[in-house]
């Protein structure tokens, strides 16, 4: 029995509310169970120096957790003068995951910055950030297309992510914090809506895993991502 009472292959309730901020070209509040993340996408008429003049667009991301998004207050990273290693790793993951669903030629030489701010954490924050980040990105691109600034839709496919792991010896989908903190194997799966894999992060957290078990977790992830993609499409329709 999972702590939440969910079936092994059952996702937490997912909701996506769009237009949650006034100024960003795209924004949403995604809730995956008790993990809540605000995602915004900002259009910027510039690109990083290393692609300037290439005609290619760029999508980048930043990620952060509010001080009381967890059970005890965390210090803001700004007070320490630098971002932690976990933060840097996650925002790089979000950026490269979203870029995998973008035709950068069609986007043109502009940048879209996606900011993901965790306001409440209960496991799977990076997965929620990627899934909500794509929704914010989709809404920002819609504005570009409506204004006629891009002719061809630069978004190839939705991008979504879900966690899977082995908890109490059983493969489970969409780990919450009680499961994530005690899972023998923990994994994050990022896929496009067309089924193409973008990234798989798996690690033994106290128990090794077999190739067959990895395949089972991937099957669960594909099912979970399919559900998330439907939620993304419904939110941006």
From TrEMBL:
<feature type="binding site">
    <location>
        <position position="86"/>
    </location>
    <ligand>
        <name>phosphate</name>
    </ligand>
</feature>
<dbReference type="InterPro" id="IPR015847">
    <property type="entry name" value="ExoRNase_PH_dom2"/>
</dbReference>
<dbReference type="GO" id="GO:0000175">
    <property type="term" value="F:3'-5'-RNA exonuclease activity"/>
</dbReference>
<feature type="domain" description="Exoribonuclease phosphorolytic">
    <location>
        <begin position="158"/>
        <end position="223"/>
    </location>
</feature>
<comment type="function">
    <text>Phosphorolytic 3'-5' exoribonuclease that plays an important role in tRNA 3'-end maturation. Removes nucleotide residues following the 3'-CCA terminus of tRNAs; can also add nucleotides to the ends of RNA molecules by using nucleoside diphosphates as substrates, but this may not be physiologically important. Probably plays a role in initiation of 16S rRNA degradation (leading to ribosome degradation) during starvation.</text>
</comment>
<dbReference type="GO" id="GO:0031125">
    <property type="term" value="P:rRNA 3'-end processing"/>
</dbReference>
<keyword id="KW-0698">rRNA processing</keyword>
<dbReference type="InterPro" id="IPR018336">
    <property type="entry name" value="RNase_PH_CS"/>
</dbReference>
<dbReference type="GO" id="GO:0009022">
    <property type="term" value="F:tRNA nucleotidyltransferase activity"/>
</dbReference>
<keyword id="KW-0819">tRNA processing</keyword>
<feature type="domain" description="Exoribonuclease phosphorolytic">
    <location>
        <begin position="10"/>
        <end position="140"/>
    </location>
</feature>
<dbReference type="Pfam" id="PF01138">
    <property type="entry name" value="RNase_PH"/>
</dbReference>
<dbReference type="InterPro" id="IPR027408">
    <property type="entry name" value="PNPase/RNase_PH_dom_sf"/>
</dbReference>
<keyword id="KW-0548">Nucleotidyltransferase</keyword>
<dbReference type="Pfam" id="PF03725">
    <property type="entry name" value="RNase_PH_C"/>
</dbReference>
<dbReference type="InterPro" id="IPR002381">
    <property type="entry name" value="RNase_PH_bac-type"/>
</dbReference>
<dbReference type="InterPro" id="IPR036345">
    <property type="entry name" value="ExoRNase_PH_dom2_sf"/>
</dbReference>
<comment type="similarity">
    <text>Belongs to the RNase PH family.</text>
</comment>
<dbReference type="GO" id="GO:0016075">
    <property type="term" value="P:rRNA catabolic process"/>
</dbReference>
<feature type="binding site">
    <location>
        <begin position="124"/>
        <end position="126"/>
    </location>
    <ligand>
        <name>phosphate</name>
    </ligand>
</feature>
<dbReference type="GO" id="GO:0000049">
    <property type="term" value="F:tRNA binding"/>
</dbReference>
<dbReference type="InterPro" id="IPR020568">
    <property type="entry name" value="Ribosomal_Su5_D2-typ_SF"/>
</dbReference>
<keyword id="KW-0694">RNA-binding</keyword>
<keyword id="KW-0808">Transferase</keyword>
<dbReference type="InterPro" id="IPR050080">
    <property type="entry name" value="RNase_PH"/>
</dbReference>
<protein>
    <recommendedName>
        <fullName>Ribonuclease PH</fullName>
        <ecNumber>2.7.7.56</ecNumber>
    </recommendedName>
</protein>
<keyword id="KW-0820">tRNA-binding</keyword>
<dbReference type="InterPro" id="IPR001247">
    <property type="entry name" value="ExoRNase_PH_dom1"/>
</dbReference>
<dbReference type="GO" id="GO:0008033">
    <property type="term" value="P:tRNA processing"/>
</dbReference>
<comment type="subunit">
    <text>Homohexameric ring arranged as a trimer of dimers.</text>
</comment>
